Sequence to fold (692 residues):
Amino acid sequence: MASANSNINIASLDFNDIKTNLRTFLSQQPTLKDYNFEGSALSVLLDILAYNTQYNAYYLNMVANEMFLDSAIMRPSVVSHAKLLDYTPKSAIAPSATINLTVNQVSAPSLTIPKYTTFLSEAIDGVNYNFVTTDSYTVNTTNNQAIFTNIQLKQGIPSSASFTVDLNTNPNCLFEIPSANVDTTTLIVQVQQSSSNTAYQLYTPATDYLTLNSNSAVYFLQEGMSGNYQIYFGDGILGQQLSQGNIVNTYYVVTQGSLSAGANNFVLMQSLSGYSNNTVYPVTAANQGGDKESINSIKFQAPKAYSSQGRAVTKDDYITIIQQNSLGYSFDAVNVWGGQENDPPVYGQVFVCIKPTGGYTLTDTQKNIISQNIIQPVSMMTVKPVIIDPDYTYLKLSSNVVYDKRKTLFTTSQIQNLVYGVIQSFTNANLNTFNSTFSSSALSNSIQASDPSIIANEITLQLQKKFNPILKQSETYKFYFNVGLSKGILTSGISSYPSMKFIDPTTPTNIIDGVYIEEVPSETIGVDSIQILNPGYQYQLAPTVTILGDGTGATAYSIIDVNGRISSIVVTNAGQNYTQAVVQITPAANDSTGQGGGAVAILQGQYGTLRTYYYNSNNVKTILNTNIGTVDYINGIVTLNAFSPYDIDDPLGQLSITVNPKTTIISSQYNRIITVDAFDPTAITVNVVVKN
Fold:
């Protein structure tokens, strides 16, 4: 009789372990005790049994994994779990662009741009994309011109699908949209009475289930097992029920997702009521597009959507609801904080900062739509939401690398490209979002580990603020770097780029070109002021003030009030070359009662001055304005006062202010984002040296 093998390790799914267990079991049977399993046909049967066991074990393990949202890897499983949390994965989102359109030689009193009017974009990576209007626009004609402003275009091709209701074969009235890349935010659903009765009713997406009744003309949206989206309708209790013979007409835009992002020039592909003389003016480039929501995003967002329950109480609720908006807006990052966290605190407000996909800031129109249609409906009545723009701090990185060519097959150029790619990957993974941190040491370690031939490397870090100053108008600009800044000694540590034009203050008709900003360098550091810690008492004469330290030349005197206390200390000579200073207060020679006075020296260095300069026709550096701003080195604040350039030598009118931080660890919070400008070819520099 066969006996059981109690020593089998059933936890192991390895093929060899399974086969060994089977062979061990058979060899313990009396009839097969002396059988040669390795040299017989039974070995093949053992292989088949082991494979079959392994396949079944793997299959059951995968089935178990698919039963839970955290471990599921197949999209239908993830979507099914998300459905239980009342979460619908986001579809592909068509990028949106804004244009103005002028149609000439119009004789009609008004002109209309129909819905789904076609425009063709400029080439993006060699491909021209189809854009359409998703609404109609009508304007009156003035001087034979029809001028349309702020027309919204969406990338994609208009499509439609119709379904006839047959309650016998499809009692749930479930219909699948045949296009995988439909932008569901453009979906329009109309229910026609019948093939003989063309009257129809517009159905809208169901949102708040608590408000639904048997007359609510709504439809429900879900992603099907095939990956296509499906719509279904109410049961006569939650939502209006469809009738036999109804025709469901759907209209939507099929998009290519984010591929057309950045398109900013368009051509109208059809005439408008016979008028073809037109000019298209770009307003905002195509942005806010996105691809179909990924599996990882669904697994991350679905539980958060369920926890927020359609109301915003915590910061995470706001972030989840904004990210999962149904307006078709796509965001790279969202940060939210309460007004009580501000300095000074602002109570009763919640601050929202959003980085849009494919852009840097939201337009005022987008802010209003998000505030009114997304945030305010879910906010508590006593809380006022405020949307503010991100504050970008750009990193300028320079890497010096030494490598041993005997330890690699890479050339110097290949090592340079390798390190450049490591820097890009590091910054993409760690920056360009809120609450991020950059560490030069972490980046240096990544570079060091990228190839065994790299012997050493060092990172030089600079910070930049980029802005578009208002030309020919005096304004004050403040830039918060939020780290301590290095003070320029003998040479300037702060600079600007590109050059600017300014009106010559001595000759207003003359325009000076090639003007830059720099920090006024300090040759020495002296005593800036003296702060009284203890005024003392019973001083009959002003006590003597002596400044001790590692510098020389600093002097000061004291002033006492009518009560015999020190009221102030005046610095008469700042001295030079101080890195530390101590204030000593001693009673005057003829004062026998005064005592207790104490003070501390404040060294120069917290504040600096900015000036503008240019090189004259003799190539001599000339100061244009000796004081156009200040620098707070401790708090990292650069201020430009009454700044009024005539022009900026840049097509976009952008000016960069570059500083040297005291630390190579840079962190962001609230509305601040640390990033590397992908459009600046000088943002990342790699210098490679070969060790001989």
About this structure: DSSP finds eight helices and 39 strands in the chain.
